[in-house]
Specification:
The structure is a single chain. Helix content is 42%, strand content 20%. By secondary structure, it is α/β, with parallel strands linked by helices. The protein has one domain: Rossmann fold. The protein has a 6-stranded parallel beta sheet with strand order 3-2-1-4-5-6.
Length: 184
């Protein structure tokens, strides 16, 4: 199944000020997330940020919020956004969810499981999620795949939102996201 930008929402999970520094290769993850958020914003996907107990962990990294300043930020204490009941009502009318953020084995995994139980199609962007430890990240990807989530890359999201070359959208995306320095 391919991502359909008309049916999808990007959910950026818990990329917060006090948590990000503890994540393995945090700077690289932040760069990848910025790239993905920009791609989705430019591609017309709605974006939602979630924040796990922001009074304790801080808010979403300002550099990421600045990329989608009109996107809602929802608070939660449950690890799963579905269990928390924090997702804006309009998101639940969408069939597809693109998940990124942290931690892979906690909030990303539990949110994906919750969305799958609702019958949603879930795309987890493997190169835009992270955990404190590599083993937890790897195990999360295995469990997500077994549960039925589609494991994708950032470039898969880009090309599936574009669908074809030769269009004005493709040319603009190529210049903005595929040429020059890109986070690896």
């Amino acid at each position: 199944m391919l991502l359909d930008k008309e049916q999808a929402v990007l959910l950026v999970i818990d990329v917060q000020e006090k948590l990000l520094p503890a994540i393995q290769d945090a700077d690289r993850l932040q760069s990848r997330l910025a790239w993905l958020i920009g791609v989705c914003r430019d591609g017309g996907l709605p974006i939602v940020f979630s924040e796990q107990y922001p009074r304790g962990l801080g808010h979403t990294i300002p550099a990421l919020r600045a990329l989608a300043p009109d996107a809602p930020a929802v608070e939660k204490v449950h690890f799963c956004c579905v269990a928390a009941g924090c997702l804006p009502e309009w998101t639940l009318s969408q069939q597809q969810f693109v998940l990124c953020g942290m931690e892979s084995h906690v909030c990303v995994l539990q949110t994906a499981e919750g969305l799958l139980r609702l019958g949603k199609t879930v795309f987890v962007v493997a190169d835009a999620i992270g955990s404190r430890r590599a083993l937890d990240h790897q195990l999360a990807l295995e469990r997500l795949r077994q549960a039925g989530a589609h494991i994708v890359s950032r470039e898969m999201v880009l090309f599936e939102t574009l669908r074809q070359a030769g269009t004005a959208a493709f040319k603009a995306a190529s210049v903005a996201w595929l040429q020059g320095d890109q986070p690896d």
